[in-house]
Design brief:
Blueprint: E1 4-7, H1 25-36, E2 44-45, H2 53-56, H3 62-73, E3 77-80, E4 84-86, H4 90-109, E5 115-118, H5 140-151, E6 157-161, H6 168-174, E7 180-187, E8 209-214, H7 220-238, E9 242-247, H8 264-281, E10 284-290, H9 299-311, H10 330-343
Helix pairs in contact: 1-9, 4-5, 7-8, 8-9
Length: 350
């Protein structure tokens, strides 16, 4: 049975956002679900420290870090266009979240565990080098990816982002760097408005952004088609040494902020396929870091399905409500064909 590391700290709950969609109850509900299912006792709890400032500065500008630190010290408030809420403890918790992602990476790279899960908040993939955005403060996955390059000597890292919102901050952090392949499946149009299929990277990184924007209604079948049609051939050509997952479960059918139709079975199968591909190519991971997901009732089930597959616990995780029918209309296939037409210049996709 695989060894699965869990990186979590109760201080993540001190990032106070009130009744905002990204709130502490998300983690409370996930942890309670994992305890009830007996998963936590079968995972390895990994102790960790907040990320050192120099690790955060590998992605973010010092002026921004100082500015957000001062903002929190003055009591916090609403940071960006009524979206990101910060409290006095938020910047300390953001350092802790980045540290959790670094520890999840370290445990996999050191062979302590086969896979790791960092249950963190605030999330990270919208955070730009000089700005907080979309509930995100520091870009946890980007910081971990940069650590993989700088401290572990890797030169091929895959970031798979299945959060329903495009990870603009992650893309921008590596869009000119061929050492990191950013692969995103997201709903469009939707916040933040980036991630068009023709955003393929810049300079040396041209061809290493792989965006799959989809109209609403896509369910398990479409996501698994993307894995087979795009992700598998890309990985078999790129051969990443490490796989990081920005795991936002807001593409689940019950999420209140989006319109996708992925089920628990879909999350489990996507996780299984990533594991299989990693084993085929000899990649470490996946290292899974929580991003979005805002249904307090259903987010725990979706995340539990991922954990169930990582640990091969043999459980059956099924939502307590039936999913609506997934769309199988022409716009979705047109979107996939457009991606294939753009990316076939760089990858063996069709």
């Amino acid at each position: 049975m695989p060894k699965v590391g869990l990186v979590y700290h109760p201080d993540f709950l001190l990032h106070e956002t009130g009744s905002w969609p990204e709130r502490k109850e998300r983690l409370i509900s996930i942890m309670e679900f994992l305890k009830q299912r007996g998963y936590i006792e079968r995972m390895r709890k990994l102790e960790f420290q907040p990320a050192p400032e120099e690790k955060v500065l590998s992605i973010h500008e010092k002026a921004y870090v100082d500015r957000v630190t001062q903002f929190c010290a003055q009591g916090g408030g609403i940071w960006d266009q009524n979206i990101t809420v910060l409290s006095p403890e938020s910047v300390r918790v953001a350092y802790l979240a980045a540290g959790a992602a670094l520890r999840a990476l370290e445990a996999v790279m050191a062979g302590e565990v086969d896979y790791s899960l960092a249950l963190v908040r605030p999330p990270g993939h919208h955070a730009e080098k000089n700005d907080a955005m979309g509930f995100c403060v520091f870009n946890n996955v980007a910081i971990a990816a940069k650590e993989a390059l700088n401290s572990y000597g890797l030169n091929k890292v895959l970031i798979l982002d299945w959060d329903v919102h495009h990870g603009n901050g992650t893309q921008h952090a590596f869009e000119d760097d061929a050492r990191v392949l950013y692969f995103s499946i997201h709903q469009a149009p939707l916040f933040p408005g980036t991630g068009e299929a023709n955003e393929v990277g810049l300079g040396d990184g041209k061809g290493y952004n792989f965006n799959v924007p989809l109209p609403p209604g896509a369910g398990d079948g479409v996501y698994l088609e993307i894995f087979e049609r795009f992700l598998r051939p890309v990985l078999l050509q790129y051969y990443p040494q490490l796989i990081l997952i920005s795991a936002g479960q807001d593409c689940h059918f019950g999420d209140p902020l989006a319109g996708m139709r992925v089920t628990c079975a879909g999350f489990q199968e996507m996780t299984r396929q990533v594991k299989v591909l990693a084993q085929m190519i000899g990649a470490r991971g996946p290292v899974v870091v929580l991003e979005g997901g805002y249904s307090l009732e259903l987010l725990p089930y979706a995340t539990g399905a991922i954990v169930n597959e990582l640990g091969e616990f043999g459980d059956q995780v099924v939502e307590p409500v039936a999913p609506p029918p997934a769309a199988k209309d022409a716009p979705i296939q047109e979107a996939l064909d457009k991606v294939a037409e753009i990316q076939k210049i760089y990858w063996p996709v069709g």
